[in-house]
Each structure stands twice: as C-alpha cells, then as structure tokens.
C-alpha cells in the first residue's frame, strides 16, 4: 500500500501529489513550508500549524493564495484573538490529540474530495507535547481520513530533530517520503 521511495515533485521544489497521497516531507528547519505547495493547493487548503492565525494569513498572502479559501487549526496552549478573513478555529493545545482530531475531521469535511490540500506544518510540535507512540497513531488516523477523501497532505517534519525509530514509524503512516533538506 505504501511506497516510501517515491519522490513526487516537479518544478523547482514544488510538490506534486496525486489525489489522496499523504507525504511526509523532511525539512532541515522550522521555517514555514508554504513554498512547497503548488498554486492549486491554495484553492482549498487546510493548514495545521503552531504559528498564529495572523502569521498564517500573512504567509498565505505572500505565497499568492486566497485567504478566503484557507482554513487554519492553530496548535497553541494560548488563545489567539484573530478576527480576519481566513477561517480559523480556537487554539488547540498540542497535547490534546483527541480535540485536534475532532477539529481536523470537521475541517476536512469542508474540503472538496479529490481537490483539497492539507499542510501540517511543523509536525514535530506534537512530539514535544505527547508520547511518540500516540503521535504516530494520530498520524495514521489523520492520513487515512485524508486518503479516503482524496485529499493531498504534506506533513512537514524537521528530520534531524527526531530519532530514527520515530521517523521510521511516521514513514509507515504515509504513502511517500520527500526529502527537502
């Protein structure tokens, strides 16, 4: 079912994923990963990120995206007071995988089957707050939900910030690995 040797990319550093493909994208820094997304991703995009909604709005605009077609699940233990044009949930504590899963599933239903994209930016954040085994199970759950809906996902991780065993476990939950270090 899964192939970890596929590297699906085109053009300079832009991802090209088939509908339903779940990609683990290894990066070398915590910089936002918006430059990886093709222009079409911004037509229906769900972003899960520890960055603030105002920052995400700015990054989507800088990438040429339409913030009215983007949604954000902010991972933070502190509340935000964002009241802008982009859809955003209340902050979700990164240790609350159940709450995150519920919000993720709700947001995923807003994306059109076969056309939407998910950018899970800085997935490492979850590993700072929760046991790696639970995070791996969570990744398996959300990637299966997106796969079933034909939604493309880019799950970015700072590869060198985790041990080989955890990384290998994350690889098993996705369809492909893309190394952008």
The total beta strand count reads: 9
Question: How much beta, percentage-wise?
Answer: 15-25%
Number of helices in the DSSP assignment: 5
Major sheet? 7 strands, parallel
The value of Rg in angstroms is: 15 Å
Biggest sheet strand order reads: 6-5-4-7-8-3-9
| Mean pLDDT across every amino acid position | 91
Percent helix range: 25-40%
Residue ranges: pLDDT <50 for 5 or more in a row?
A: 1-12
Taken in chain order, the helices and strands follow as EEEEHEEHEHHEHE
Counting helices, strands and paired strands, the structural category is alpha/beta
Question: What distance lies between the first and last C-alpha atoms, to the nearest angstrom?
Answer: 26 Å
Apparent shape: globular
Give the oligomeric state of the chains in this entry, treating copies of one chain as homo and distinct chains as hetero.
Answer: single chain
Which secondary structure elements does this structure contain, and how are they paired or packed?
Elements: E1 9-10, E2 14-15, E3 22-27, E4 45-49, H1 53-62, E5 70-74, E6 87-88, H2 97-108, E7 117-120, H3 124-129, H4 132-148, E8 152-158, H5 164-171, E9 176-179
